[in-house]
Design goal:
The chain is α+β, with helices and mostly antiparallel strands. It has 15 helices and 10 strands. Strands 1, 2, 3, 4, 5, 6, 7, 8, 9 and 10 form a 10-stranded antiparallel beta sheet that branches. α4 packs antiparallel against α5, α5 crosses α13 and α12 packs across α14. The protein starts with 6 loop residues before the first helix and ends in an 11-residue tail after the last helix. The relative contact order is 0.13. It binds protoporphyrin IX containing FE. The site of protoporphyrin IX containing FE (HEM) has 29 residues, from β2, β3, β4 and α10. GO terms for molecular function: catalase activity; heme binding; metal ion binding. It catalyses: 2 H2O2 = O2 + 2 H2O. It comes from Nocardia flavorosea. Its cofactor is heme. Its EC number is 1.11.1.6.
Length: 533
């Protein structure tokens, strides 16, 4: 190793192959003296199948590619650590890594764009992923967030539709990695729940100057659970020590041409230079009794909890201090999953989160070639792993013992523990009729986008107007532009008329904004009308 005292690095060091000394060999460890000419009959004759080195070399090359991530394909990652400031969260969560200031938990973070393919440019208008794997003593915890605090849709069942609208169009795979196209704006105009995240997407937040200058958000309302089993709602926030900074659109376009690796390079170079990026983790806590005290639903991922209502409480610090050794082995093979939680952190019924909890493992089974990707070095927990799982492609451990099932009397299995270290799913009461209908408390779409717009400085507002004009101006179907304007008018007529002016279109009449339920109505969501099923 490199004298590293970090336990994750100590785990990885023996797996890191030193290519700077030693001999060239085959995969079987047989030394090779010549790798430039294949074995042939005579100097100009046919190549021989007998040349196992040539065959192995070419065969392995032929199999180098794996599927890129279906979203967030382009990313950059780094290792580091997280340390809580004090034990003050112990009242709310049993998670040790958040409450024991003596514990320095190793992390791996991957930043990403969402829509572009693996080779696309960094400085595009897009959301950025901000995914953190904490290798805690109680198992791996993944906080799989974004640099926006809100998402585009409310229910995970719409995710395939949304991504189909956002990604390059299927017939010609244009546009590569930009949001300006008919399918996106068609989707947006028809689905007003997208509007709040769309405001963020049209703002400077979608053009981060550096990954080191980005906020991160867990987005969903999650649940802390303390040692007594009491729950508290929680939203997670990352705040960059360097502050939030953006490029302007013209810079983005130029940089995308001159240095498409701009954000990736900046992260790498700053870590190599010892100028380690830092973030403060903060939480917004809402006692369960206050679940219905808001004029939106806490389970709706298209809403923020305004900080005036619930301040962000600082919790600890994360530092990224080490670049990976190998992009593919580490940054590409890392597998984040919202369902990777540890004791003290649990889910809520946010319907977006619930389907994410299905989706990540499912996609990784194909992306990483089978059920054993948790054995890959970057994914391997520091906590002990003892499952009763057997076999599968790419097994890297050697389970020993005769019997892999519980209550075995032969050896090889392990008892299920009953101590306080185990993960216990939060106990709560659920009831209701089976329905395919979203609660009325999710159906107000315009108030928070309006709040966002009205909190902008004149310069920021101008950037948003130009972004809308640029984006909508690229739509080939002119009706899509007017449909989108009809939504913008409901957010703010002045904003809509400025955009319309740039597009040379009339500002639509402010259509009727649906009657919106306010907080007292939220309590009715527990008993939705059974007749609509
Ligand atoms: C990948 C964030 C919603 C499915 C990712 C990644 C991030 C992320 C950061 C990249 C992980 C990495 O670096 O490896 C979010 C956030 C969401 C959201 C913050 C909303 C709050 C969803 C939903 C679904 C979904 C609703 C599906 C129903 C996926 C899939 C991947 C992915 C399949 C690729 C994972 C892989 O191949 O390893 N997401 N996502 N996401 N997300 Fe999401």
């Amino acid at each position: 190793g490199r004298g590293d005292t970090d336990p994750k690095q100590q785990q990885l060091d023996p797996l890191r192959q030193d290519r700077e000394s030693g001999y060239l060999t085959t995969q079987q460890g047989v030394r090779v003296d010549h790798t430039d000419d294949a074995l042939s009959v005579g100097a100009r004759g046919p190549t021989l199948l007998e040349d196992f080195h040539a065959r192995e070399k070419v065969t392995h090359f032929d199999h180098e590619r794996i599927p890129e991530r279906v979203v967030h394909a382009r990313g950059a990652g780094a290792y580091g650590y997280f340390r809580p400031y004090d034990d003050s969260l112990a009242e709310y969560t049993a998670a040790k890594f958040l409450t024991d200031p003596g514990t320095r938990t190793p992390v791996f973070v991957r930043f990403s764009t969402v829509a572009g393919s693996r080779g696309s440019a960094d400085t595009v208008r897009d959301v950025r992923g901000f995914a953190t794997k904490f290798y805690t003593e109680q198992g791996n915890y993944d906080l799989v967030g974004n640099n926006f605090p809100v998402f585009f849709i409310q229910d995970g069942i719409k995710f395939p539709d949304f991504v189909h609208a956002v990604k390059p169009e299927p017939h010609n795979e244009i546009p590569q990695a930009q949001s300006a196209h008919d399918t996106l704006w068609d989707f947006v105009a028809e689905q007003p729940e997208t509007l709040h995240a769309i405001m963020w997407l049209m703002s400077d937040r979608a053009l981060p100057r550096s990954y080191r200058m980005m906020q991160g958000f867990g987005v969903h309302t999650f649940r802390f659970v303390n040692a007594e089993g009491r729950g508290t709602f929680v939203k997670f926030h990352w705040k960059p020590a360097l502050g939030v900074h953006s490029l302007v659109w013209d810079e983005c376009q130029q940089v995308a041409g001159r240095d498409p690796d701009y954000n990736r390079r900046d992260l790498w170079d700053s870590i190599e230079a010892g100028d380690f990026p830092r973030w403060e983790l903060g939480v917004q806590l809402v006692p369960e009794e206050q679940e219905f005290d808001f004029d939106f639903d806490l389970l709706d991922s298209t809403k923020i909890i305004p900080e005036e209502q619930v301040p962000v409480r600082p919790v600890g610090e994360m530092v990224l201090d080490r670049n990976p050794d190998n992009f593919f082995a580490e940054t590409e093979q890392v597998a984040f999953h919202t369902a990777n939680v540890v004791p003290g952190i649990d889910f809520t019924n946010d319907p977006l989160l619930q389907l994410r909890n299905f989706s990540y493992l499912d996609t990784q089974l194909i992306r990483l070639g089978g059920p054993n990707f948790a054995h890959l070095p970057v994914n391997r927990p520091l906590a002990d792993v003892r499952t009763h799982q057997q076999d599968g492609f790419g097994r890297h451990d050697i389970p020993h013992g005769q019997a892999f099932y519980t209550k075995n009397t032969l050896g090889g299995g392990c008892p299920a523990l009953a101590d306080e270290e185990v993960f216990r799913h939060y106990t709560r009461r659920e009831e209701g009729d089976t329905l395919r209908i979203r609660s009325d408390s999710f159906k107000e779409y315009y108030r928070q986008p309006r709040m966002f717009w009205r909190s902008m400085t004149p310069t920021e507002a101008e950037h948003i107007v130009s972004a809308f004009a640029f984006e909508l101006g690229k739509c080939k179907r002119v009706e899509i532009r007017s449909h989108a304007l009809e939504q913008l008018v409901r957010i703010d007529p002045d904003m809509a008329s400025r955009v319309a002016g740039r597009l040379g279109l009339p500002t639509p009449e402010a259509g009727p904004v649906e009657d919106v339920p306010l907080s007292p109505a939220l309590s009715q969501v527990k008993d939705p009308p059974a007749t609509i099923a």
